[in-house]
Amino acid sequence: MQAHYQQQLDGTSRGQLQTQFEERREHERVDAEYFATLLKESMRDVEALDAEITERADRSFDQLNPVEIAILRVAITELRHHIEVPYRVVINEAVELAHRFGAEDGHKYVNAILDRAAAEHRAVEHAARRRSG
Q1: Fewest 10 Å CB contacts: which of 6, 8, 129, 131?
Q2: Quick check: 105 pLDDT over 70?
Q3: Do the beta carbons of residue 127 and residue 87 sit within 8 Å?
């Protein structure tokens, strides 16, 4: 999320972002391989991700909060490409990040968009969860 946010603000390349984040002390607690994979996938697909966000949003893309855009890009990438991570985990982590770093009610917005994205990208898992309550 932080890498996408920084990229939106100053246009830093994926390679530079990866290097910067790998040099940070807190990166020691991160799964470096998963971070690199997720960063690569989400940066590669940024136009498609932004189109999907726009499609699911109730306002124009330029009116969205940059923190929420960053969170949504990463979370939708996980929904699309990382079935090993349950969709509820993806959504819960994204909502927590939005609650912590986003606008006042941004977490509600992130939750709504990701729930609709999960219904598409994780249709079987999403439907099973809906049936079980």
Answers
A1: 131
A2: yes
A3: no
Domains of the chain, start order: 2-132 (1.10.940.10)
Q: How far is CA 33 from the centre of its chain?
A: 17
Is the model's pTM score more than 0.90?
Answer: no
Q: Which amino acid, 63?
A: Q
Phi-psi region of 70 (alpha: psi -120 to 50; beta: other; left: phi over 0): alpha
Residue 37 has which token pair?
């994979």
- Dist CA 115 CA 76 (whole Å): 10
| Alpha-carbon span 103 to 29, nearest angstrom | 27
Condensed to tens digits (0 to 9), the pLDDT of residues 107-123 reads 999 999 999 999 999 99
